[in-house]
Write a structure and sequence with these properties.
Helix content is 0%, strand content 51%. By secondary structure, it is mostly beta strands.
Length: 116
């Protein structure tokens, strides 16, 4: 069973920056798509960003130009750099992985709160 463990969440002021990390228990080269989703209180979980092994990247329109996703296959880690954060970015952020077999994996989530 693959485990994904997020870290780096916390409280940040509007306009500030934060970097989330997702460490996998296996070599993430075996996980074709990795990414981040988020869920705000009372809302459905939504896509934030994904990155494939081929470095194809997809962002939600709401974070384009502000967030940057990257993956380090040697460190088995995926990152989400969050810049110019807004109060509406407040949510629990979940790490996500999907193999070519379409088997999916989720982390436990890390809370990000944007507030002054």
């Amino acid at each position: 069973q693959i485990q994904l463990v997020e870290s780096g969440g916390g409280l940040v002021q509007p306009g500030g920056s934060l970097r989330l990390s997702c460490a996998a228990s296996v070599n993430i080269f075996s996980i074709y798509v990795m990414g981040w989703y988020r869920q705000a209180p009372g809302k459905q979980r939504e896509l934030v960003a994904t990155i494939t092994n081929g470095r194809n990247i997809n962002y939600a329109d709401s974070v384009k130009g502000r967030f940057t996703i990257s993956r380090d296959n040697t460190e088995n880690t995926v990152y989400l750099k969050m810049d110019s954060v807004k109060p509406e970015d407040t949510a629990v952020y979940y790490c996500y992985g999907r193999k070519l077999s379409r088997q999916e994996y989720w982390g436990q989530g890390t809370q990000v709160t944007v507030s002054s």
